[in-house]
Amino acid sequence: MLGWFHQHLTALRQALSQFGRNPFANLIGVLVIAFSLSLPAGILRLINQAAFLSEGTLHEPHLTLFMSLDADDAAVRSVWDGLAARTDVREFRYISSTQALAELKATPGLAEAIGTLDRNPLPHAFVIRARNTAPQALESLRATLARWNKVERVQVDSAWAKRLDALLQFARRGTGGLTALLTVALAFTVFSTVRQQVLAARGEIEVTHLIGATAGYIRRPFLYFGVLEGILGAMAAWLLLWLGRRWYNDAIQPLSDLFAVNLSLAGFSLREGMLLCLTSAGLSWASSYLSVSLTLRRLSAKR
Amino acid sequence: MITLNTVAKRYPDGHEALRGVTLDIEDGEMVLVTGRSGAGKSTLLRLMSGIERPTSGSLAIHRQEITRLSNAARARLRRNIGLVFQDHFLLMDRSVEENAALPLHIAGLYGREAKRRVATALEKVGLENQARTSPLALSGGERQRLCIARAIVNRPRLVIADEPTGHLDQGYASVILDIFRSFNETGVTVIIAMHDAAFETSSPCRILRLEDGLLSGDTETASSEAL
Ligand SMILES: Nc1ncnc2c1ncn2[C@@H]1O[C@H](COP(=O)(O)OP(=O)(O)O)[C@@H](O)[C@H]1O
Ligand SMILES: [Mg+2]
After folding, report:
1. Is B123 helix (H, G, I), strand (E, B) or coil?
2. At A91, which CATH number?
């Protein structure tokens, strides 16, 4: 029992010292694994966030009505009254051009640019929720409202949501392909670094084999090495995701403020982190196993 | 201890390195295997240590039929045999004592008992003062002694050495042989392959002569007989 523990400890020590022996090449390997893991994980997180938005806040079909730029208060009033009178309009909200501009100005970074404008470029607008949200009903309401006086444009935002949905479906499938590809990249990275280690340790493998080491004993340090590389890669991926999320959230903040929706990405939970590590460790174990076995077979065939 | 019955070994390239070898090695024997280069000495030793399987015939080590053992079982069997190879097969990136400890680690023995056995083995070959150095710092003869220490660290009842003096000069060869003889005197079975060059035996031993894969001689010598 104690011997068994010592053997594993020794194998782990050997694997660790392998890292020290070739730090640059091993760092590259770890980085490749980190990218292979963080890229699909990050993209999937983005897609899920967008899907969440499209299903939640933005998915309830609504119309946005933009007045023409020259519309005065009376024109706005008449549209307001017209909407209030319609039974197929459940509720509506008026956003004046001044209000819209003020919201924009509150956005850091945009304030200065807007300050240089000598005229408010934004139209007055209404956000309208219909009673019947079936596509045809929305479309006929849109057509009716579009013909009203001083109305520049009416758009159905459910169409946008549907398009986003379709896009997300497509992106998910694309990410599936990407994930598969990068999984292969990860497996291959581990495979080839482990293979390198095995070839470098040829002499030692031969001696230990001759003096009675079983295949399991010979494989062990290499499996530890591969799994260690995988786990380090997962940890680096975690760091990349953390940095990426921070960068994204900083960049998205102005947009979030503009639309008054929370577009920022949620952090990754500890559970997701563990899952990432486990996935990577499992994959690395399998590919180092394969690598050691195949390389050893080639070596013994040459003998 | 080792029983061979009409053993033949044919390599994958078709070369027949051993043919119809039948012999019996008893506990505590001192055996020299001689023959010209290419006669099949190494092949015979690899078979007797369970590194390779015979192509035909039967071969039992410690009463275990080699042909029926799995790779892992043959590996475990080798742990109880002290092996010294023609080439040193030392790990140059480990210290002398780590090299000597390798068989113990393979068998799962670590800690104080392992340290004690390594110290004893190094003492027996006169390397106790170089335990912490690298094998790179050792002379050819010292390296061979280290190989012997590694072979006996597990206290095997059987030691098999393939031309252990091959790379050494004549004077040093007898030092190495004396070390083996001292093991044999404690009851360990010793099998040594030797190149045909003349050498002297200072005590009786059994000499097996191989010629082109055939066992052509099996004699007991008295002491101080030149071959
Ligand atoms: N792995 C091998 N594959 C093919 N032929 C081999 C192999 N090992 C040895 N031989 C051949 O078998 C014969 C006996 O070799 P060996 O047992 O090494 O003889 P010795 O040790 O007496 O010099 C030689 O002709 C050698 O070329
Ligand atoms: Mg030979």
Report:
1. helix
2. 3.30.70.3040
Q: Which domain holds residue A82?
A: 63-156
Instruction: Report the pLDDT averaged over residues B126-151.
Output: 93
Are the beta carbons of A212 and B107 separated by less than 8 Å? yes
- A40 lies in the same domain as A175: yes
Tell me whether A98 touches chain B (CB under 8 Å).
Answer: no
Query: What residues does ligand 1 touch, defined as CB less than 6 Å away?
Result: B 11, 13, 15, 17, 35, 37-43
Domain boundary among A126, A156, A186: A156
> Same domain for A189 and A293?
yes
User: Residues A225, A89: one domain?
Assistant: no
pTM: 0.71
What is the count of structural domains for chain A?
Answer: 2
CA of B54 to the centre of ligand 2 (A): 17
CA of B46: which chain A residue's CA is closest? A210
Q: Cβ of A212 under 8 Å from any chain B Cβ? A: yes
pLDDT at A112 over 80: no
Mean pLDDT, range A196-214, rounded to an integer: 87
Q: What is the pLDDT of residues A74-87, one digit of tens each?
A: 999 999 999 999 99
**A257 touches B at CB < 8 Å:** no
The residue in chain B having the minimum alpha-carbon distance to the alpha carbon of residue A5 is B108
Mutate to test the interface with A, among B105, B143, B158 (most CBs of A within 10 A): B105
A183 plus A293 within the same structural domain: yes
